[in-house]
Amino acid sequence: MGPPHGREATLLPPEAHGGRPDNTAFMCPYCEAVLSNPNAAQCDACLRPLPQKGTPVLRVTFPTGELKISVGQHLVLGRDAGQSPVASTFTQYDNVSRRHSTLWLDPSGTAWVRDEGSTNGTFVNGERLPRGVDAPLRDGDQLRLAADVTGTVQLN
């Protein structure tokens, strides 16, 4: 299997960076190109201005790595690479659906999750979300996919 590309590069396993705590890559929220310089003012690929410091960021830390989602970006979580750009993170979990849930951060800085009709459910702080319902996320929430894939939500 080749190296991750596009949105899949936003979640990197710990061993990809020698196990250091900050093991993430950043991507352009518009064209989804991986950014070589996360502090750049504009994307090298699409030339659009990038959100700067002080702009809210949603982080969800899973045992396999950390997701970072910028304002306006939607990210599907699941096992199917055709549906989820971070599928390789979840392929080892048979109980995670191919298209399990979607995360995003709206312009006001509110984080959201929606279960996409998963078989085994999406849970926030132990409470199962109804299918297709947008649920807000707060800093410190526990996001669980199916029975055993839990991530911690950070908003900053």
From TrEMBL:
It comes from the Bacteria. The keyword Repeat does not apply. CDD domains: FHA (cd00060). Coiled coil: none annotated. Keywords: Phosphoprotein. Residues 75-129 form the FHA domain. It holds the Pfam family FHA. This is PSer/pThr/pTyr-binding forkhead associated (FHA) protein. It comes from Actinomadura namibiensis. The lineage of its organism: Bacteria, Bacillati, Actinomycetota, Actinomycetes, Streptosporangiales.
